From TrEMBL:
Pfam families (alphabetical): ABC_tran
Gene3D superfamilies reported for this sequence: P-loop containing nucleotide triphosphate hydrolases (3.40.50.300)
Principal location class: membrane
Top-level taxon in the UniProt lineage: Bacteria
Name by which UniProt lists this protein: Biotin transport ATP-binding protein BioM
ABC transporter domain ranges (all copies): 7-233
Signal peptide range in chain numbering: none
Location of this chain's protein in the cell: Cell membrane
Lineage of the organism: Bacteria, Pseudomonadati, Pseudomonadota, Alphaproteobacteria, Rhodobacterales
MF-aspect GO terms: ATP binding; ATP hydrolysis activity; ATPase-coupled transmembrane transporter activity
Topology with respect to the bilayer: Peripheral membrane protein
Originating gene: bioM
Xref: PROSITE patterns: ABC_TRANSPORTER_2
Main enzyme class: hydrolase
One term under GO cellular component: ATP-binding cassette (ABC) transporter complex
Amino acid sequence: MNMPSRIELRDAKFEVEGKAILHGLDLDIAAPRIGIIGRNGSGKSTLARLLVGLVAPSSGDVRINGHDLAKDRRAALREVGILFQNPEHQIIFPTVIEEIAFGVGQLGQSKTEAAENAKEILARFGLSHWENAYIASLSQGQKHLVCLMAIVAMAPKLLILDEPFAGLDIPTKAQLTRYLAHYEGSLVHITHDLADLEGYEQLIWIDQGNIKMTGARDDVIAAYLEAMHALGGDDDLADLSR
Ligand SMILES: Nc1ncnc2c1ncn2[C@@H]1O[C@H](COP(=O)(O)OP(=O)(O)OP(=O)(O)O)[C@@H](O)[C@H]1O
């Protein structure tokens, strides 16, 4: 396994049209496997977009392995990859091979090399027969898998997974879990299913745009579950519509 990627946030704020979504986050963490948990609308996906540099903080600083990825898009290609909750946000090409080859092509490989690489990754997943398949003809879970293959083909040092198992059937999820367990780079995994974070060292709990807690997995899960069970007894949904 590679050296874990370092994630540094200094008073990082993110706001949209004057509405604060993330409030001055501070974080300095490096672990091979990091989970992010928190309620719906707490700011997890926004944090993921900030980490990969798809959005810049409104103020403050976000660095991955020392790079400001919102400014340095070339570094971003090597340092990070993200698997979105919704594959439709990721896919740009009609066929599986084109989609996978595009990412590796971005890293500077020739068209032939990129296509060879894409074929290799399809073979590794036992999906060589998907090479010329039209992505539009695949199911939602299969599209998710194409996106994952496209990203791992680029071998980013830090791979951010935003609910990567949403909509996947049990065997597919089990296969992906096994594959990800062997991923050489670091993983940041956002999920509502705490069982997905088995074997993860560190957890970050996001609550209403703040970091409520970071620490060892079991400690954060215990505190989180206690808070969630307390809230589960309450019928007031008002805090979901901030
Ligand atoms: N571009 C945007 N414009 C306006 N509001 C936004 C924007 N992006 C996010 N938000 C708001 O910020 C809050 C956090 O959203 P985010 O998607 O980061 O939450 P989340 O923790 O990933 O939620 P979930 O678990 O439901 O996926 C929500 O209230 C959301 O409506």
